[in-house]
Amino acid sequence: MKKTIAIILSLAMIILSAVPAFAAEETYNIGICQLVEHVALDAATQGFIDAVEEALGDKVVIDKQIAAGDSNTCATIINQFVSNDVDLIMANATPALQAAAAGTFDIPILGTSVTEYGVALEIADFTGTVGYNISGTSDLAPLDQQAEMLIEIFPEAKNVGLLYCSAEANSAYQVKVVT
User: Fold this and answer.
1) Bridge partners for 94 per DSSP
2) 64/72 Cα distance (integer angstroms)
3) Exposed, middle or buried, 174 (CB in 10 Å: 0-12/13-18/19+)?
4) Distance CA 66, CA 74 (A)
5) Exposure letters 62-98 (e unless 16+ CB within 10 A, then b)
6) Alpha-carbon span 130 to 122, nearest angstrom
């Protein structure tokens, strides 16, 4: 978790340093779409906000919206951000990223709490680079190390069951990688 937050903060600093210097009266408008309130998602969002506010101080206006777990609400939030012409969208969780990717090709999007960008964005032959206005961090666990640990703890096991939500692309991806 600390590694993910550190990566998010680093990306935020890189993106914000690439923005031209602002005049004293200009502000940078950031829209944050977070799928649901959850301790891990909240921590990622807060880490991003802290880094941005440290870098820009009072020259940033942040509009943080929670979608209450509804991907349709993510799309509505993103459409508001696009209509308001925000300077950056931070999409926290896969449905928020998917809504942002569908909503704009012009506004930079920073994703977090996304396991696999290729799966989330349905990019065939994904090489690790999205290639347009999207960047971000992955929360993919070290699956090979987890599998090794299971073998070490249960060396006599013949079969292992994996519980996952087949409707969640990231869950299905992780099961596919492990099996």
Assistant:
1) none
2) 17
3) buried
4) 8
5) bebbbbeeeeebbbebbeebbeeebbbbbbbbbbbbb
6) 10
Distance of alpha carbon 166 from alpha carbon 2, whole angstroms: 28
Mean pLDDT of 141-159: 86
Q: Are 36 and 95 in contact (CB under 8 A)?
A: no
Which two three-digit tokens encode residue 72?
A: 């349709």
Query: How many Å is the Cα radius of gyration of the chain?
Result: 18
Task: Give me the domains of the chain, ranges plus CATH numbers.
Answer: 2-140 (3.40.50.2300), 141-179 (no CATH)
pLDDT tens digits for 118-129?
778 777 777 777
Q: Do residues 75 and 30 touch, judged by C-beta distance below 8 A?
A: no
How do residues 33-42 score in pLDDT, each as one tens digit? Answer: 999 999 999 9
Q: Strand 60-66 to strand 109-114: parallel, antiparallel, or no bridges (unpaired)?
A: unpaired
Could you please report the per-residue DSSP string of 5-60?
A: HHHHHHHHHHHHHHSPPPPTT--EEEEEEESS--HHHHHHHHHHHHHHHHHHGGGE
Beta bridge partners of 64: 32
Tokens of residue 52, six digits: 């941005």
d(CA 32, CA 3): 21
